[in-house]
Structure formats: C-alpha cells, structure tokens
Amino acid sequence: MPALTAYSDQPLAHPTPDTPAAERLWLALVALGLLALAVTAAAPAGLREPAFWLGLALLSAGALGWSWWKFGRDAGGVRHDYLWARASTSRGAVAWVTGVALTGFYVVLYWWPEYLENLIRPLDGLSQLLRRRPADQWFLYGTFYTLAVLLMGGRALLKYRHSPYQRVRTASVMFFQLGFAWLLPGVLLALQQPEFYFTYFWPLKYDYLFPGGVQALLQNGHLGAFMVGWGLIMSFVATPVLTYFFGKRWYCSWVCGCGGLAETAGDPYRHLSDKRREAWRYEVSIVYTVLGFIIVTTALLWLNTRLGGALLGRLSDEFSRTYGFVVGALFSGVVGVGFYPLLGSRVWCRYGCPMAAYLGLLQKHFSRFRITTNGGQCISCGNCSNVCEMGIDVKQYAQRGEPIIRAACVGCGLCSTACPRGVLNLENGPREGRYQPSQLIRAESLRILD
User: What highest taxon heads this organism's lineage (predicted)?
Assistant: First the structure.
C-alpha cells in the first residue's frame, strides 16, 4: 500500500505553465527599469538624470508590452488562471518582496524624503514646466502614482476590453487622475493659486474643511472662496444626490484616485481580499470609527476656533496631526498601498477610508443602486466572489437569487463581468424592491438574534 502524502505535497492537476520567452523579455524590461531607478537613488549627479529617465522608459515599455502580450493578443476576458499558484499573486515570495518594497518606499517618502533626492531632482525640469517651482517628494509621488494608473490602466483596458462598462470606467479613473489629480493642481500652483484637488473633499480630504484649511483658501480671493464652496457642495449636496442615483460607484470606482490605483495597479491582487465574516466585523468596526473620529475632530476644531482656542488650546493641532499621521499617512499610504500584494487592493477603501464609510451609509440606506441576481442561472463557479476586492462573498447572494445591497460595494462591476451566465446586473432602480421578502425576513431574524 503506498504511503499517504500530505495534500500540500500533491502536484497541481494542471501545473503552472512555464513563462514564454517573449513574456520573459517584456518582464525583463520592467525589471531593468526598476533596477535603473534603484541605481538612480545612489548615482552621482552626472548619471542620475539619464538613469532616471532610462528607468522610466524601460519600465513603461516593459509594462505596456507585457500587457499587450498577456491580454492583447487573445479575446478579452476575466482570467483566473493560476492566481493561487503563482508566487506573485498568492502571497508567495515575490508578493512579499513587492510588499516590502512598496511599504519601504512609502515609509521613506513620508518620513525620510532626503533619501529620495536623487529621484526628485531629475523631475525639476518637468516640475518647472508644469508648476513653476522645483520638484519635491510629493511631485515625485504624484508622478509615480499617475504613471502607475496610466500604465496599469492600459493593462486593464486590454484585459477587460470585451466589457463596455469596464472600458469606460477604467478610462474615467485614468482621466481624473491625470487631469484633476496631477495636471490641474500643478497648473494652479503655476498661476500662484492654492494647490487644490477638485476630486477630493471632506471627509477624505479632511483639511479642506478644517478651520485652518478654510481660512487659508479664503485668503486667495474669489477662487479660494469658490474652492471652499466647491468642497461644501460636493461633501453635503452632490455626494448624497449622486449616491442616491448611482450608489458609491460614481466616486469610488469612477473618480477617486485611491480607487483608481486599486482598480489598475491593484487589479492583480483583487482576489486576495478576506471574505470571512470576521473580516467584515473588523471592517465595520474600524471604518466607522475612522469616520466618527474625523467628524468629531472637525466639530471640535470649529468649536475651538469659535471659542478662540479656549476649548482645546494646543490640543486642536494635536488632533489634526494625530489623524494625519495615523490615518492619512500610516493607514492610507503605508498599509493601504504597501499591502496590496498581501491583503488585496482595497485595504484602505475597505477598512480605513472615511469617504467610503460615508458613501456606504448612503448607499446602504438611501440609494437606488443594487446588484440584482438571477439564482436560477447561477452555477456556483465562484468567479464573482473571487474578483470582489471588497471582501463580499457575492456567490452566496447569487445562489439565493437575492439582490446585493452592501455598504462596502464600490460598484466596480467585476462580479458581473466575470460571471459566465449573466447572473449579476448593476442597476439603479426604484427603492421599492431593493430587498426581496426572503431577505427582509432573514435580516429581521439576524437583528433579533443580535
């Protein structure tokens, strides 16, 4: 009788295929580009600029060429082949190295930017052209961020070109990142105006409605007043109205830069999102705590301002600095992006973003948006759950034929795109019928048990 072997030691029924030589060539260009950028960080002054631009050129050419080789030669579609077998997408060695590198970059960017001088200085010419001032670490970050969205957006356009919804949605996040998050703020600086991001507003861009932020904007005349008004209207008027009609997808999947990076650069890791009920409990407890903290902080700062500092004194600055460090830098940057290869692409959006929490409450209780399901057609393949980056086990809803109305859902539509049977559909219907009777009974039962 043959000896029993542990399941983990068994070979895959279909072993991971070898990477073709042509694909390796494109990936080698990406690796050489990253190597050139690493060399730039320690290169002497005469070599750093050629090495920097050579690195970006090789990286861009390799990424676009690889995207075309991988997704552009065959029919478009959602492919799950070997995601859990490759070291880069299954929390293997490659994923850990990538995560450590991303995390390290963010840590240096936020707290030791002097070590990035060799990467910053080659951008002086571009910064002078766009902003009329030398580059700094935030211009470097914005340039890298935008390049990542554009390059990986090209990958998404090739991969999902069979879906009109995905094409338009991807083009939208690329447009808003390039035009409104990179070009427009730079042009405003060149015109001696405040560096303002029209696609970010309270509670995500919290300081735009802090007393100090409002006062700084109002010092810039009519344009500053317009910016303050824009922030107020977008936060408290446009956001509820647009969410009522379209759900939170109008922002999280079409406009927001955080979501744009997650949907493009983070797409290879979307299946890593934790779908356990315990993860959902952590999500609810953390994200609404963050929202509550920024609401309380904003209210206290304004009250302190009205009282001439008598309420908090110097503590008012500590409140904003604490939030900026813990949430604005550590959570949204270091963890939110650095942990893509380990925890999935929407860690920040799911667990920490106050804007996502705000939009989620509106979507859950007031919106017309829902994802309808046809349980009779579901074959339980699990493709929908696998691509959900927000940790929703979509298959459970599809099997029961129940509409999906979840505060976390960002309406990316990949569950519908991945479904081979057309079971899932994104709809903006009347509020009547959002819940089926079976779902109402189950929800009421759970409420009583809780």
Answer: Bacteria
Q: Give the confidence band of 308 by pLDDT, cuts at 50, 70, 90.
A: confident
Same domain, 267 and 359: yes
| DSSP state letters, 223-276 | HHHHHHHHHHHIIIIIHHHHHHHHTTHHHHTTT-HHHHHHHHTTGGGGGGS--S
Residues 292 and 428 both lie in one domain? no
3-class state of residue 140 by DSSP? helix
3-state secondary structure 321-332: HHHHHHHHHHHH
Q: Which residues contact residue 192 at a Cβ distance below 8 angstroms, ignoring those fewer than 6 apart?
A: none
| Structure tokens given for 192 | 């001696």
Q: How far apart are CA 35 and CA 58, in angstroms?
A: 10
Tokens linked to 448: 């009583």
pLDDT tens-digit series, residues 136-156: 999 999 999 999 999 999 999
pLDDT tens, residue by residue, 427-436: 886 655 544 4
As a whole number of angstroms, the distance between CA 214 and CA 68 comes to 46
Per the domain annotation, does 401 fall within a domain? yes
Please state the rounded mean pLDDT for residues 320-324.
72
pLDDT classification of 80: cutoffs 50, 70, 90: confident
Tokens of residue 421, six digits:
């049977």
Are 306 and 438 in the same domain? Answer: no
